[in-house]
């Protein structure tokens, strides 16, 4: 399978600003990738700023409109899940487009704060938050600390009391709905580390404990069912479950929680074989219908709804630009051959193929070729045979040392999961807008790596 040509559509595998130049190179938002590589080096992550902003804005607008009070609902907020990729520039962009920022560690929180995102529109997640992280959240007025265990409740309550504030908290509920890819399975028992189970009564216990704590304000319930989800049925099932718990709590305590967060996990297209994901408008309409109908059935006023997309905002906006080095034909059993195309990065800049068996595609970025296509595998330069960037892709048979290769849809969980394995400095993140390229995260240097080693 060869890479689909960029066509400017939001449902494509390339960001909407990617085009072929007249002489056959790829350009992102008017920046020729040959020039980008010459100026900034390779490997590099290249982010299409307008594409990212447009995706962020599409979520904000779709949810504001679908959940509007005119339609009998109580509004909606969108939080960008920073773990997908966070830098000061990206936090600013999504905030400018009307999103809050969802963080999961003190590091992500520090970046959002440095970007000037107000604490009130930042969330803090985590199944094992440190005292330092919770203290920072309380001190900076984080708008929602998402409680993930019963023991965390006392810790947040004590820190808030000591600071003389009421800390806003949500309860992370595991609904029994697991989703990912095209399937979801409802299970009674939750054999994983996140959240408080609905069926065991742990979620309800957390709610009651928070309601009894003077220094805590219960903002609502939170559900996040998985990632890379293309079928909306799992979100609908989870929404129904948390709305039911909310109504139960209201019935027995008289307290109707103002918010429900339905998490992130909306899937994107990595290769032409992936289905075109639902657009933000469709997601928002489907969820608004479920929330409206369910609340009507339960006889409760609808909550304000929030969501936390990460991958679907930043993933399609990014590509990774590599330089080709060694090209090797390897004979396979049965007489066929595979062309191994080695690039100057690998599992240190994209761990997802090794970690999840994730599929990607790749295309020549410096030229067009009319050569026949060969069955190729794009591999990195690390000391592992599992160091695969693209397992199967059709590339022109004349692919050679010095060519540029672009791998689309690497904006999410690429740089954010990057390592310095083999002491490879991590690539920069380059933002392109209106033909202008700038590094928003600079390339790591050997000096950066050596600076951590305390022996002279
Ligand atoms: C990972 C995560 C997200 C974002 O998931 P995406 O697949 O990137 O949209 C949102 N919320 C929580 C709690 C998460 O853990």
Automatic annotation (TrEMBL):
It catalyses: meso-2,6-diaminopimelate + H(+) = L-lysine + CO2. The keyword Ribosomal protein does not apply. Gene3D superfamilies: Alanine racemase, Lyase, Ornithine Decarboxylase, Chain A, domain 1. Keywords: Amino-acid biosynthesis, Decarboxylase, Lyase, Lysine biosynthesis, Pyridoxal phosphate. The modification N6-(pyridoxal phosphate)lysine is found at residue 83. Pathway: Amino-acid biosynthesis; L-lysine biosynthesis via DAP pathway; L-lysine from DL-2,6-diaminopimelate: step 1/1. Specifically catalyzes the decarboxylation of meso-diaminopimelate (meso-DAP) to L-lysine. Homodimer. Belongs to the Orn/Lys/Arg decarboxylase class-II family. LysA subfamily. This is Diaminopimelate decarboxylase. It comes from Georgenia deserti. The gene is lysA.
């Amino acid at each position: 399978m060869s890479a689909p040509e960029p066509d400017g559509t939001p449902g494509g595998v390339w960001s909407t600003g990617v085009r072929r130049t007249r002489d056959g190179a790829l350009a992102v938002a008017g920046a020729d990738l040959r020039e980008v590589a010459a100026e900034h080096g390779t490997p590099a992550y290249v982010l299409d700023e307008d594409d990212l902003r447009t995706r962020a804005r599409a979520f904000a607008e779709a949810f504001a409109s679908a959940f509007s009070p005119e339609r009998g609902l109580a509004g909606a907020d969108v939080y960008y899940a920073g773990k997908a990729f966070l830098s000061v520039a990206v936090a600013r962009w999504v905030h400018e487009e009307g999103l809050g920022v969802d963080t999961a560690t003190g590091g992500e929180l520090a970046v959002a704060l440095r970007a000037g995102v107000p604490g009130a529109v930042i969330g803090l997640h985590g199944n094992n938050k440190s005292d330092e992280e919770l203290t920072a959240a309380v001190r900076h007025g984080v708008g929602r600390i998402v409680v993930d265990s019963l023991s965390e409740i006392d810790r947040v309550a004590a820190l808030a009391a000591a600071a003389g504030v009421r800390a806003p908290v949500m309860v992370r509920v595991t609904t029994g709905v697991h989703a990912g890819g095209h399937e979801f399975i409802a299970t009674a028992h939750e054999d994983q580390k996140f959240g408080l189970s609905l069926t065991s009564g742990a979620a309800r216990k957390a709610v009651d404990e928070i309601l009894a704590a003077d220094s805590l304000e219960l903002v609502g319930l939170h559900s996040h069912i998985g990632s890379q989800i293309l079928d909306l049925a799992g979100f609908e099932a989870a929404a129904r479950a948390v709305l039911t718990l909310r109504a139960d709590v209201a019935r027995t305590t008289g307290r109707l929680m103002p918010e429900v967060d339905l998490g992130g996990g909306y899937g994107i297209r990595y290769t032409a074989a992936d289905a075109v994901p639902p657009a933000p408008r469709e997601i928002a309409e489907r969820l608004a219908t479920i929330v409206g109908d369910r609340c009507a059935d339960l006889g409760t006023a609808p909550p304000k709804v929030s969501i936390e997309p990460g991958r679907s905002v930043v993933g399609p906006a990014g590509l990774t630009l590599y330089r080709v080095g060694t090209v090797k034909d390897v004979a396979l059993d049965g007489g066929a051959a595979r062309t191994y195309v080695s690039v100057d990065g690998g599992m240190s800049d994209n761990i997802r193929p090794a970690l999840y068996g994730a599929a990607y595609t790749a295309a020549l970025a410096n030229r067009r070729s009319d050569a026949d296509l060969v069955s190729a595998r794009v591999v990195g330069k690390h000391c592992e045979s599992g160091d695969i960037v693209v397992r199967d892709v059709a590339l022109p048979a004349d692919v050679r040392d010095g060519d540029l290769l672009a791998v689309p849809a690497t904006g999410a969980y690429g740089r954010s999961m990057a390592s310095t394995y083999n002491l490879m400095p991590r690539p920069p993140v380059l933002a392109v807008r209106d033909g202008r390229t700038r590094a928003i995260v600079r390339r790591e240097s050997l000096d950066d790596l050596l600076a951590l080693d305390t022996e002279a």
